Amino acid sequence: MNICFIMYPWERISPATDTTLTLIHESYQRGHNVGVMVPSNLTIRENEVFGFVKMLKGMEKVPTEPAKFYPKVEFEEKMLPISGFDVLFLRANPPVDSIMLNFLDSVKDDVFILNDVEGIRRANNKLYTAGMFGGTESIIPKTYVSKNRDYLIRLIKESKSDKMILKPLDGYGGSGVIVLEKQAQKNISSLLDFYISGQKDQQYVILQEYVEGADQGDVRILMLNGKPIGAMKRVPAENEARANVSVGGTAVKHQLTKTEQRICELVGPKLVDDGLYFVGLDVINGKLIEVNVLSPGGISRINKLNRTKLQKNVLDFIEYVVSSREAALNRKLAHRKAVEDAKHKP
Ligand SMILES: Nc1ncnc2c1ncn2[C@@H]1O[C@H](COP(=O)(O)OP(=O)(O)O)[C@@H](O)[C@H]1O
Ligand SMILES: [Mg+2]
To answer: How far apart are CA 25 and CA 53, in angstroms?
Structure first.
């Protein structure tokens, strides 16, 4: 198979913990042709979508560990038609590059894209989670999204809780997530001004019920084709409200609880419907905080904690999808030929 990873620059990979690297390594070990590129290297040549793709060169002996494989990789850059790939992994960091999605619109029927272009459009920010069950399910914390500062101040004043969470609509890695203490009234309007009007255009912000127990950590669940394949707990550092490992959270072993399993059962079919095949859920104390669809991480850390190789599950899945599609196409071609041959008989 031909597999392309549209991702952050290769040089930015942290070999010991990078999820994309585990997927590249597994693909390469299985003998697939593997290429990597950054989104800005997409291009159009005579009306077809091409990319300047760095194809991985052959290697004498492939190290069995992704971290040992990383420094050995050599590339050859080629301009290649994107529809020549069987699989595209979208592994660029959020926020989503909408131009990249426009490029991929014209190849999405020829290539299996994880995650699906339409799904990413739908789920590219935290509104996807906030609006997921339209208030009918109690698995999402009470969430408000607005640009209206006075409305948000009123919500905070009227809230029974002494604190709430404020975050930008399309942040990631914990950036901009803060706890608003009700007693710090004097700071709240200034903070809201900053979050809403601090940039060129006014921004939406999320105000969310603070989920009790967050100091004990949040759970990252990796979902493949709508089912959980692995999980870990991330415990925030001391004096830190955010559990993200990028801001000092520690990964610890975790077994899914009944409530977490139920969340997966509720959310899984919707994810598959939306073409979101490889997704990271963030759950705190039985509440779904976030659905990460762009380049979710966690494979390396979960592997280390549970002695698994979750990248194998992902590759098994994509090989199955691609070979089923190919079998369907071959069947169609054979049947078409049978009909055509019948016509030509005297
Ligand atoms: N409603 C909440 N209650 C308590 N803690 C929260 C809440 N929302 C976020 N956090 C903390 O902040 C972290 C980052 O929030 P999240 O919504 O996942 O944004 P990001 O996309 O930046 O990861 C979470 O992992 C959690 O530790
Ligand atoms: Mg998160």
So the answer is: 17
The response to whether residue 165 sits with its C-beta less than 6 Å from ligand 1 reads yes
Upstream peptide bond of 102 is cis (omega within 30 degrees of 0): no
Asked whether the whole model's pTM tops 0.85, one would answer yes
19 lines ligand 1 (CB under 6 A): no
CB 226 within 8 A of CB 271: yes
13-57 pLDDT tens trace? 999 999 999 999 999 999 999 999 999 999 999 999 999 999 999
Q: Is the CB of 208 under 6 A from ligand 1?
A: yes
**CATH number belonging to the domain at 2-121, selected among 3.20.20.70, 3.40.50.20, 3.50.50.60, 3.40.50.1100:** 3.40.50.20
- The Cα–Cα gap between 92 and 77 comes to 19
Q: How far is the CA of 135 from the centre of ligand 1 (A)?
A: 19
Segment 170-222, tens digit of pLDDT: 888 999 999 999 888 888 999 999 999 988 899 999 999 999 999 999 999 99
The CATH code belonging to domain 214-311 is: 3.30.470.20
